[in-house]
Amino acid sequence: MVLWLRTTPDASLRLGLISSKKVHLRANKRNRARRQLREAYRQIRPKLNGQVDLIFVARRSLLKATWNETKNEMYSLLTQAGLLAECPEKSPVPTTPPEAPNA
User: Fold this and answer.
1) Is 68 exposed, middle or buried (0-12, 13-18, 19+ CB in 10 A)?
2) Distance CA 41, CA 39 (A)
3) Count of C-beta atoms within a 10 Å radius of residue 70
4) What is the mean pLDDT of the chain?
5) What's the whole-model pTM score?
6) Per DSSP, which regions of 1-103 are E strands?
7) Which of 5, 10, 27, 36 is deepest in the core (most CB within 10 A)?
8) What would the pLDDT profile of 31-61 be if each residue is shown by its tens digit?
9) CATH architecture of the domain with residue range 2-80
10) Does residue 56 sit in helix, strand or coil?
11) CB-based burial, 75-102: b 16+ in 10 Å, e otherwise
């Protein structure tokens, strides 16, 4: 998938989805790709910040991707764009120092 950002004075994290016939010739497959992107965005949107409009362009590989792959791809694109703090697959670094071995 591809992410385009559109900055205008009235931008407010609105979502635009594009799935052309390059994704699949059948409309039901293109609609499925759009539904997947819309649902992933719905779950991620509360974590976003910024004043831009987002346009996601579906690619053919989206039809074969699992749900987690789709969400992780969206997380990574939004992180690269600076709209999201960090990617979900990265585990946080422990804040407590490791214990010293007893001698």
Assistant:
1) exposed
2) 5
3) 19
4) 85
5) 0.76
6) 2-6, 15-18, 53-57
7) 36
8) 999 999 999 999 999 999 888 999 999 999 9
9) 2-Layer Sandwich (3.30)
10) strand
11) bebbeeeebbeeeeeeeeeeeeeeeeee
